[in-house]
Design goal:
Layout: E1 14-23, E2 28-36, E3 40-44, E4 53-58, E5 61-70, E6 74-78, H1 87-100
Pfam families: PilZ
Protein name: Type IV pilus assembly PilZ
GO molecular function: cyclic-di-GMP binding
Length: 121
């Protein structure tokens, strides 16, 4: 039996912090999306059984998902329909835009040339 090498992900994952409500078959729990892409998400604070289907509610939008892996305090979900519009997609785009802004070095320009705190050479 031969194993196939893992495929690269189709979408770039982006770190976010988005409060959501996850509806399972019998219950609904609050969670936080900490990793998001057009194809799926990692949700902390919520856990449902693997291969179960759920709904993710955010800002009036419902996104359907399938649980791919699950631990006692987090889970990874895949979206059967890619995110292309709506509030969750807008939050993803905002997070990607914020990550693209480079950090500016604030203190390097004020640093004295020389040795020590007094700039003795």
């Amino acid at each position: 039996m031969t194993s196939t090498p893992p495929r690269p992900r189709a979408h770039k994952r982006t770190p976010v912090s988005i409060e959501v409500i996850v509806n399972g078959v019998l219950n609904h729990v609050e969670g936080r999306i900490v990793d998001l892409s057009e194809g799926g998400a990692r949700i902390d604070g919520a856990s449902l059984p693997e291969r179960s289907r759920c709904e993710i509610h955010y800002a009036g939008q419902v996104v359907y998902a399938v649980v791919m892996w699950s631990e006692w305090d987090r889970m990874g979900v895949r979206f059967p329909y890619e995110l292309t519009q709506g509030p969750l997609h807008a939050a993803l785009e905002r997070a990607r835009g914020a990550a693209a802004i480079p950090a500016t070095p604030v203190f390097l320009s004020n640093r004295a040339i020389g040795f020590g705190r007094r700039g003795v050479s």
